[in-house]
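Quick one from the shared queue. A colleague (R.T.) flagged Carotenoid isomerooxygenase as missing a structural entry in our internal table.

Convert sequence to structure tokens.
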Amino acid sequence: MRLSSLFLSPFESTFSDNASIGIHPFGDEAYSLAEIPFAHRINLENLETLETVNVHNVLGLVHHTAHLHTWADKVYNIGSKLGFSLRPCYVVVEMDATSKLTTSSPFDEPSGKSPWSTAKIVATIPSRWPLKLGYMHSFLITPNYFILVEQPLSIFMPKFAVNQLSRRKPLASSLQFFPDEDTCFYVVSRNQANNPQCQVFRAPAFIYFHTINAFETKIRDDDDIIIVDISCYDDPSFIDSMYVEALENAQSNPDYAKMLHGRPKRFTLNCTSGQITESKVIVNIGCELPKINSEFVGKPYNYFYAMCADIDANNPGKLIKVDVVKNTFKTWHEPNAFTSEPIFVPAPNSKGEDDGVLMSILLYGGESRIGPNRSTLVILHAKSWEAIAKVDILSESALPKCLHGWFFPDEHFKETVTQDKVTVS
Ligand SMILES: [Fe+2]
């Protein structure tokens, strides 16, 4: 029996299985995920749940992220496990992503074995603390490395267990921030032949949810340098900003915007010298839910896209295109409209990193609302940065603000668009 079973089983029935953070493709299948040890395979045509995978039963994980990476025909994710040493550990999980849907029943029956049946742990990194796990929402991948960033914002597992049993407090109430401790970058070799080697880099404390991208580079021939870009915050008060009470009082709280003050930063990790270069602000604007052209994950890149996190800025609901080479940015906004995560879709036979479109859902405030249940899908030309199409979505109830999505090509979808409007029920 796993130690984690002793820990988790009494609470398993108290876990929500609401996997509402993101969707990720595994070959032609798609799963919805959150930071709970469950994943739901979903029908992409009607979004019904097809089956639920208990990831704790598969791998013994007590947590995994909703920010996976696809690399060739594999999908990678990170999670956490408990060990007998009382020192929890982080793991990197590898799964096949080769399933092809049958033509007769494209959304109901996977043709091959479940990707979860191929899941295996390819790297294990112990937490720096006994009984505590660093909170990790996302991670990075390059051709030769996995990069896990352990911020000094930890989940104290005994308190988490008590809170879980009481069902009264969210995960955030189990978090402890140690401002005097470093943020650790664990750089893990992907070369299985040598057993995964881990090199640790330490930087002054910062907080993050979302990594942006990482890539390998050289200054001299014998260099082995990794560039890491992350949306960083100086302290954990932005987590407090998401409590319902804080949201309700946001308009009257003059310090509310300060809670969300973060900036995208670049770190340079020199694997040859073991040195980390001090972080550098990429652009002076808050960027959240960053996305890039997925063809450039783990590679040198030029652009990322994000929504504005500076809620006290003029037109705070803006979209941002950041040039990480020139350290410049452009914004796009519509008055009284608030954007969601931008999703980049490359043009067919794309001829450049920003040759494609960006899609985002607009939610409206004030007089722009034009009815309580109107939202709009806006499509921007990523290179010219102009809106080229908008589709109004009239729903039976107001759409909630979304977190993470994914673009799935339409080859299997029935035609559901009529005229210039889509009706969502
Ligand atoms: Fe996220």
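The longest strand covers residues 207-217.
Helices lie at 3-12, 55-59, 157-166, 237-240, 244-248, 256-259.
Added to the table.
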